[in-house]
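Lecture 7 notes: from sequence to structure.
We start with the chain below.
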Amino acid sequence: IVRRGPRPVSTRFAARADHDRALIEHIRSLETPIGDIGVLCLETYKVNEIATVFISGNPYIPLDQYEGRPINAVKIGTVKRAKGLEFKQVLVGRVAPRLLSSQPAANESESLQRRELYVAMTRARDGLWVGACS
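Predicted structure tokens for the same chain:
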């Protein structure tokens, strides 16, 4: 499928705080309505950590509570919860840097994580931001 639009953005961060700050800044810089934005992570604990960043005044709804009706809030959840959904803008947060490597997967677990990352990236319709940090 040929798509048009901005190139995906992939950024690596040395610290989680820098990653989280950049994620929030990116969301605020988007001209997309907030209800058309999805923040996805590979693991539930990362979703929970990012949700704590949103508590400070940014409207969000966990994907496990999202009922599919329009709502003026960022959707936050795991890639597994996002299967079958599409967002105008997707931010994939706290990705392990090794998953973005061009080297072959080291084992089956890493290969599975890369496939899940692919699923997360394909949920984006108009824009994609990937933030990597350890």
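Points to note: The radius of gyration is 14 Å. The longest helix spans residues 16-29.
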